[in-house]
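Appendix B, record 7
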Amino acid sequence: MNIQDIHNLFLQCSSLSIDTRKIEKNSMFFAIKGENFDANTFAKEALDLGALFVVIDNESYFIDDRTILVKNSLETLQELAKFHRTYLALPIVALTGSNGKTTTKELINVVLSKKFKTKATIGNLNNHIGVPLTLLSFTKETQIGIVEMGANHQKEIEFLCQIAQPDFGYITNFGKAHLEGFGGVEGVIAGKSEMYQYLAANQKTVFVNLEDPIQIEKSKGIKSFTFGVKKENADLNIQNIKANPFVAIDYNNFGIESHLIGLYNANNINAAVAIGKYFEVKESDIKSAIENYIPANNRSQMMQKGSNEIILDAYNANPSSMAVAITNFLQLDKKNKIMILGDMFELGEESLYEHKVIVDSLVVQDQALCFLIGKSFYANLVSDENVKFFETFDAFSSFLETFRFNSNMILIKGSRGMALERTLEYIS
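Structure tokens (predicted):
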């Protein structure tokens, strides 16, 4: 069965799933092998739960004419997504970057949805499986697709662009993320810039933040729409940005006050405004879209517990995002500040050094009490009255049983694996 035949069957289905726990009636189930399981074993269960067709790559699990046997289920999923994207022929905005991808994607979506029927990557389904699933969620009713692309090694963005074939692209930034896989910062720049190379080769359009010299350099020669703060030559000139703690921007004598915290989110907002302007969304709609957007999923969430104000940013962390979060937090006009910071993962040989850089920046400040949690921070232990080290979260939680938060401004940030949102249980 060729990919067009499979696509014809897919069009008969209500949805597509790779997880029998989320099977919908009349859906298509793809049996994708994982490191610790063979999803082919779930093919019959998928049909029993209401799937219309199942795609398998192990003939031992063939059931009946509802079974589609292929050489490799994952590769077929990717080929199907590419075919479906060509079939729909809708404009696609793709974005990648070291920090801020998901927030920027959400902002772009709420802005463009004011004028168009949009569909965007759900959560962070942004890898070699998530991007195909995103594309296959688009329908003939979708007017603009928004696709987030993540990567932890070179050639990954190139591969995802070949599947999604974006018409527009934006790179949020080039930071110190996934250094282990990319082989250092230069590897990050090369890997993320694969999006520029695709857009250039296909005469597509890139959105460029003129605040970022790397974006300017790497996007030379590509059709572009630019934005920046106090950049008179930009297609969108932002007059002013501020944050205390929420970000507000001004452009064209038009003000937007967001629910996002930290100046590092200004670029994410500016990008969404620029893309909205490019697609001719009304300024009043851009304003209402951004002002009504509330961050969730542990991403720069502002919350109140008892007498304490909390910035919960525990979804992810790398040296770049950690540094700007600390800088922004220290600049806030608040008293009784506390930082609870967890280890940053996937830094490879740079891990010890990058954690030391953060520690060094904290011991020279006296505006906040700092709790550092995790083996990498603990390996850089120093004696300082404002910086306390805990090798594990269990050690920290034992300490919290006797520590009392009282009218504090608290920043909680760490890599996802640290699960620092657990700290909330001890704040009242």
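Remarks on this record: The longest strand covers residues 254-261. The chain has a mean pLDDT of 93.
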